[in-house]
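request received
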Amino acid sequence: MNTVRLTATLEATGLRFTYPPPGAGWSAPAVLRDVTLHLDAGESLAVLGASSSGKSTLCHVLAGLAPRYTGGTLAGTVHLAGHDPAAGPLPSGLVGLLFQEAAAQLFTTTVEDEIAWGLEALAAPPAEIGPRVDEALARFGLETLRSCPPWALSGGQQKRLALAAIWVMRPALFLLDEPLDGLDPAGQTEVAAALESLRQGGTTLLVTTPGLPAARLTARAALLEEGTLTAPEPTAALLAQEERLVATGLLFPAAHWPDLRGQPPLEGPPAVEVRNLRFHYPDGPEILRGLDLTILQGQFVALVGVNGAGKTTLVRHFNGLLRPSSGSVTILGQPTAGRPIGALARQVGFLFQRPEQQLFAPTVREEVSYGPQRLRLPDVETRVARALARFNLEPVAALPPAVLSYGLRRAVTLAALAALETPILVLDEPTTGLDGYGWAQLLHWLAERRAAGVTLIVVTHEPALAACADRLIAMEAGQVIYDGPPAESAQPSAISHQPSALSGQPPAAGYRSPAHEPDA
Amino acid sequence: MSLTLDLYLPGRSWLHRLDPRVKLWATGLGLATAFVLRDWPALAGFLVGLHLLLKSSGLSWRRLGTIWRQVALLAGLIFLLQPWFAPAGRLLVAWGPLQLTTGGLASGAVLALRALCMAFTMAVLLFTTEQRALVLALVRLGLPYSWGLTLSLTLRFLPALFSLFTTVREAQAARGWVAEGAFWQRARDYIPVVVAVIIGTLRLSDQLTLALAARGLEGSARRTVWRDLRMRPVDWAVLVGVTALFAGVLLGVWRGAL
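response:
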């Protein structure tokens, strides 16, 4: 075992990093411009930054992965427990990196093999591996899942497994890239509890995050804006400066939100009418168990509930992606039965989860015009021009979506939806992964659609967004358990399941006492 | 929708505990046996033997039925079509140029049984062997570690890519995508879906490169192996046993007894 790990200190000075340009004739701006930071053993630091501020790149540089595996040029100096990542590969296991996307870093076929993999790479004696795997399974509450394939786990479980797989290698420094983002509230609570117990155990943590909950798990925090890092200050003090957080694009406080309320329902047939809807996949259990709903035109409905409650399954019936096993769904007075998805797509615009993964066209303009063209809508040119202008995408209209920043790619997905100009919009967890700017962009657009009389149906885990709706529908186990004004929902279990991390409370202890941490 | 390439059913039977290298060898001999046997009664006997073997591993009748449902169509088609192409022996029915003969029927039965024997031989291996054990066995038999890793990554990520494919197709369907018309038209309609999946795959593979490096792939020159394979006396006994059995089959076929 390497004794140098006891002096875990991270020292980075004047870091500047530029990726290689995507092709000839392209220029790549520096992603990191000026990053200086110092971390002593046992300290925890949050790096708060909006989308595309350079958070992941910073993690990759500190872990010695960039530029080694990514290409590009690095200036400045890094010292990690006496090692210089630029000089040669870091000793295996010196730095543990939790990637933003948990699924991409789980590469074996069972939970226990995932944990053992790093120990095998460290050439640990085989006799020691078993007990250490057991210890890690217990430490992260994964004992009952040891033989499961990693891809069958929930998001929170996957993150915990990834943490366990890193922890077992006893790194001197944990780099956690957006550890809570993209998880549902239950998953956030689980992972926050695991991180809190790591911190209390004296692990050296560097957390990058666009959201405030993950920052609350650390003692000090700094802002990363366009590749420049501010001097760290106590986390509580930094998080109290709302204006700074708003200016950095981290926060879009409810006080700034556009008015999403108060449109009276329109005349005419209901936008959506669901009668005794039951649904199950072939040979599967019943997911929707006899739903009855009438959503009037012009209403703003928030659909809430824990994962697996059937929310996504329900809204997929509105544009014909799923068909009822029994019962009926009627859109604007016409039953969906027998109508192809293409016909329904003219009435129901649908934003899927992780929409930025569905971009494919060679240019932004073609991406936005794909829907109107396929649906043979009139005035394709005008619609596309309107949508591009609405999201300020004209300057990048000729570029491939894939080279754009995350925030711009999200804008492209909204523009592609806007160009369809449908009377009904269904959005499935539209705020996942959004920073303050993204929230502002989304809510302003929704407010405009609202004012134009569009029916909004939004599946969300965000209590603040749900509170803006005319009507809140809470689902549990395939049934509606609450349907009424959001204010009077009396916190049904479905939405009271708010992660303690979001409210700033210390997460509930659910893990082994961190009394003795070998890496402390 | 899900796609899993893992047929393994957890268990503690003697077949589950058998060294995977012995199972790979036995599987090879089993496939060879299906080829060298030329009479349908011998193949039928072999098939019954494979069923007994699967039962001894604790496989339920229901699961056996599932395997049958998946291979029955292919075996049935072979049995029904082959006789018309290989007329021999006594003529039973003639229909224009097509002749159904006793020899044709026998040859159909042999081919169908052979396909079944091969499917069930593979089933014995795949239902009782974890993917990690299978990959480890191949590595211990001389496959370079990086190849073994590639194999297990493929097994791991194909389901992920399949689900990405489904997601993208659905998202595009909601924007009017539909595959219709003649083959070429449909193939063209799939281009946007495939492009999005390729972009996703490249992104995933970039991430994976970093994730593997972050967990110490570079230090893999002297990796250790948790739960390494070790031949027990019973593994040697089975190895010798199946090899002797196969030699017996070869001898029987050569002497014309099988």
